[in-house]
Amino acid sequence: MPAGDGNMAMSQHNTQSNALGDNWIGKVASAALGGPEASGTVLILTWDDCGCFYDSAPPPLAPDGRQMGPRVPFVVAGAYVKPGFTDSTPTSSTGSILAFIEWVFALPALGANDASAYNLSGMLSFTQAPVTLPRLAWRRLPAWKYRTTLATARDGT
């Protein structure tokens, strides 16, 4: 989540600029995947809510019996992510992220939800040569767009 007082401007919530949010995501992703530890980095990008788009799939129950919420976008990027691959395995964004960390570091599950969550391993191939990741584009926006969006985020209108 974008940090600081103006974070709402880049949040991609309704009334906020998707382009500003895309630029922020690109900046963070470029730093993580283009830095000195890039070959050992997996970037997992997800959102904290649905964006209120219609979804034809009803949310399932979690393993602990609680109702899961609507699906949210989920993107995995890194040098060992299978190129051009779409994984249709259902994920529980927070449970799957935790299951991934537990899998990578051989840690025990913390609870029923992460114990049965998909650990994202099907998206990776450690036998492939590391993929050179594309340069992320930066969309130039007019200065007024930053001022207007940031002011809106500060005063909450």
Task: Describe this entry's structure for a reader.
The longest helix is centred in the N-terminal third of the chain and has 17 residues. The protein has four helices and two strands; from the N terminus they run αββααα. A two-stranded antiparallel sheet has the order 1-2. It is mostly helical. The radius of gyration is 18 Å and the shape is globular. It has a domain of 94 residues.
Average of pLDDT: 82
Fraction of residues in H or I helices: 25-40%
Largest sheet: 2 strands, antiparallel
Strand order of the largest sheet: 1-2
Contiguous low-pLDDT stretches (5 residues minimum) are none
Report strand %.
5-15%
Put simply, the count of helices is: 4
Q: Shape, please?
A: globular
Content-based structural category: mainly alpha
Rg over CA atoms, rounded to whole Å, is 18 Å
**N to C succession of SSEs:** HEEHHH
Distance between the termini: 20 Å
* DSSP E strands, number: 2
